[in-house]
Amino acid sequence: MAATGLTREQSFKAFDGYQYVYNHESETVGCKMKFGVYVPQKAEKEKVPLLIFLSGLTCTEQNFITKSGVQRLASKYGFIVANPDTSPRGCKIEGDSENWDFGEGAGYYVDATENPWSKNYRMFSYVNDEFYQLIIKNFNVDVNRIGIFGHSMGGHGALISYFKRPGQYKSVSAFAPITNPSKVEWGIKAFTKFFGQDELLWKQYDATELVASYHGPKTRAPILIDQGSDDNFRNKYLFPERLIDAAKKVSFPIECREHEGYDHSYYFIMTFIEDHFKYHKEEFEHIK
């Protein structure tokens, strides 16, 4: 189908479908944004489930589509898989490209409230409103079967999207997510700039805080989180046990699997990504 308001930059035949890269002018973040989308052959004839993948720090739209092996699985399971960039780019804000863990490539999937970031760094609204609707409008999506997952900063983004938008996503999973950003160096650095000193705002974008007050619909199976035991970020920035403990206190089901010997890389993701496809497929199959 023809894409409206999109410019196609790349098109690659992969398995029975196509891996595309598009750009568009975003009203939400005020710049041109790129994204990848894999469209299986099945989507040419019928509406199919959608998975949105959010990438981690320093990534563009390219990392996931070139390193994860997602195309084979999207073809096998008949899913459209869409992945946006991780931040606005080219906004020329002083300080947005000086460090790898903040600014360009590191938007943290939040809506900033402090100047000069609040005009462009609105990635939460971009992902969950503009990008979400853009994919539905332009591709053959079954709107009743949409899930979200991500890695590291993107795992954080997926979890907060699920908790902050009850019912919008029917399934959610994550690889090595930042679970408690308001309490770790990466998050504190970013949140101080994006939100100032208002720690109540910080908590509104923190999965460990959000799960404690979540009252929306729940996934049928526990939320799936995969974590590598040899991830050098695990005990300084990720802290999966904090999310698990908070979830247990409110009887929210989360399954965190720790995998011996795996690190934080895409080798870890490519090893276990099919488990995530199976997980989302099983969640979708129970939707009437």
Automatic annotation (TrEMBL):
GO MF, one example: carboxylic ester hydrolase activity
Q: Assign the protein's first listed, main location to one coarse class.
A: cytoplasm
What reaction(s) does this enzyme catalyze?
S-formylglutathione + H2O = formate + glutathione + H(+)
Q: Which UniProt keywords apply?
A: Cytoplasm, Hydrolase, Serine esterase
Cross-referenced NCBIfam families, in alphabetical order?
fghA_ester_D
Q: What is its EC number?
A: 3.1.2.12
Q: Where in the cell is it found?
A: Cytoplasm
**Gene3D superfamilies tied to this protein:** alpha/beta hydrolase
| Catalytic residues, chain numbering | S152 (charge relay system), D231 (charge relay system), H264 (charge relay system)
Top EC class, one word: hydrolase
Q: Name one Pfam family in it.
A: Esterase
* Organism in which the protein naturally occurs: Adineta ricciae (Rotifer)
Per its database record, what is this protein's job?
Serine hydrolase involved in the detoxification of formaldehyde.
Would I find Coiled coil among this entry's keywords? no
Classification from the root reads: Eukaryota, Metazoa, Spiralia, Gnathifera, Rotifera
User: Alphabetically, which GO biological process terms does the record hold?
Assistant: formaldehyde catabolic process
UniProt-recorded name of the protein? S-formylglutathione hydrolase
Q: Which family does it belong to?
A: Belongs to the esterase D family.
Q: Mind telling me which GO cellular component terms the entry cites? A: cytosol
